[in-house]
Design goal:
- The chain is α/β, with parallel strands linked by helices and 466 residues long.
- 32% of the residues lie in helices and 23% in strands.
- The protein has 13 helices and 16 strands.
- A hairpin with a 3-residue loop joins strand 2 and strand 3.
- The two termini are 42 Å apart.
- The relative contact order is 0.18.
Length: 466
């Protein structure tokens, strides 16, 4: 409410458009909160028209061409769809059930990249571990013929702080279990909800393959197994999956520019990803991000004068999947052909945490306390955005390869109090997006990006190549 009242005051008191960057950025914040529907219309059409958009699928490719048409319609220049090949993965039919002590179905879903179960199904006794580290302590061969379960819960937190730590179970648990002889792998979903909706997500290929069938249990079903074990029961389960691979599947990323008016060769890159998991419609992950950065950049492009630097939109493809030879195929597909131009990428940002309110701005440590950060916080303050406690790190999955190549990253941190209730589940649908919060995101992005793109601040640490 405080943020909305402050914005109302801005709407009344903001003077006519001025030339200096901070005034223009402030006005963009105000304009983004006046009920424009670009972001909502885009995420609504994307998720309704195309539904789920698994990497390498026909729906993902169609969405990329639709998105390119939207960028052209909105006035972006140099719009292009860039195709590249990946190993696709299709879920097929799947089921998980307890056989002993008494038969009962379990709500579970295969992890991305998991192979089909040999012979149609596998059965085995469950051996549970409290963490990935506990699994690693199991002796070689000790899980022969068994199914490993890592039962590590993700804590609920305002910024999703536990996701990276608990997510390691999904990434590395299957290979660690296979090394010790397991024939299958189960894990508690990486999520903060209590619904019988399991959370999928990719595991890692090891030596070019995912070694054993691997599944995520919904939180209540992981609890069910834990209670059976607490009663002294030995639990035996049956796993079934017809998952398959599609080598040579085609995915795409889309680029479009708002050309700069004075230093057009310098690029401020805004990223989000078009692909989604197959269970829901990819509204919060990451249709919202696609819509937010598009609406913000479009608003900037409508100014009578463009900012000095070029603003580049990148809708990444295949963000959700790992590959037999890589864990960051999406970001590298954009970066690698442009390595010679990395010095001209002055800043990268990514929107990939849904549409709940932005609460903090993270800038690299060397910019803490700078004149730029102070101006940014003056612009973002009316939106109830404060300085982040932690630096931006690698910025996000898609822009991480750019950061590895020396491009600075900013992060507009969002509240994640609800995000991991729905993340990677069948509940990732349009109704989870709050339109007021979506507008707040667009406002924050528009104001901050104008300030960054219209100025001449060098965001790299002193002494590094420009």
């Amino acid at each position: 409410m405080r943020a909305l009242l402050a914005l109302a005051a801005l709407a009344i008191s903001t003077p006519a458009l001025a030339a200096d960057g901070e005034t223009t950025a402030t006005q963009l914040v105000r304009r983004a909160n006046t009920g424009a529907t670009v972001a909502w219309d885009m995420v609504s059409e994307l998720t309704t028209r195309f539904g789920p958009r698994p990497a390498g699928s026909a729906s993902e490719r169609a969405a990329a061409r639709w998105a390119a048409a939207k960028l052209k319609e909105y006035g972006f220049r140099n719009v292009a769809v860039h195709d590249f090949a990946i190993t696709g993965w299709t879920r097929g039919q799947e089921s998980v059930a307890i056989l002993l002590p008494h038969p009962q179905p379990l709500a579970a879903t295969a992890l991305g990249g998991s192979p089909a179960t040999p012979g149609g199904a596998i059965e085995g006794e469950v051996v549970s571990f409290a963490s990935l580290e506990a699994l690693k302590l199991a002796a070689p061969g000790s899980l022969a013929g068994k199914i490993a379960l890592v039962d590590l819960a993700m804590p609920r937190g305002g910024t999703g702080f536990g996701y990276g730590y608990v997510g390691r179970v999904r990434a590395f648990g299957p290979s660690e279990a296979a090394t010790r002889g397991a024939i299958g792998f189960l894990m508690r979903s990486v999520g903060t909800d209590s619904h019988r909706l399991p959370h999928t997500g990719s595991t890692r290929y090891i030596d070019g393959k995912v070694p054993i069938p691997s599944f995520a249990l919904s939180v209540p079903d992981a609890d069910q197994i834990a209670r059976l074990e607490a009663l002294g029961e030995r639990v035996r389960v049956r796993l079934s999956s017809t998952a398959s691979y599609q080598p040579g599947a085609i995915t795409s990323y889309v680029t479009g520019d708002i050309p700069g008016s004075g230093a057009a060769d310098e690029i401020v890159l805004l990223g989000a990803h078009l692909d989604s998991w197959d269970l829901g419609t990819g509204a919060i992950d990451d249709g919202a991000g696609v819509a937010i950065i598009t609406a913000a950049a479009k608003l900037i492009g409508e100014q009578k004068r463009h900012p000095r630097r070029t603003i580049r939109i990148v809708f990444y493809g295949a963000e959700e999947v790992t590959q037999p030879d890589s864990a960051d195929v999406s970001g590298r597909a954009y970066r690698d052909p442009r390595m010679a131009a990395m010095a001209k990428h002055v800043l990268a940002m990514e929107s990939d945490e849904g549409a709940d309110p932005i609460v903090a701005l993270a800038v690299p440590d060397h910019l803490k306390g700078s004149a730029f950060e102070a101006a940014a916080l003056r612009i973002l303050g009316p939106l109830a955005i404060v300085p982040a406690r932690e630096p931006p790190g690698r910025g996000g999955v898609d822009i991480a390869p750019l950061v590895d190549a020396g491009v600075p990253a900013f992060v507009l941190q969002q509240s994640a109090s609800r995000y991991f209730d729905y993340h990677h589940t069948a509940d990732d649908t349009l109704d989870k997006i709050d339109r007021t919060s979506l507008d707040q995101n667009v406002a924050a992005w528009a104001g901050l990006i104008w300030l960054a793109a219209d100025g001449d601040t060098d965001f790299r640490p002193r002494g590094t190549a420009k």
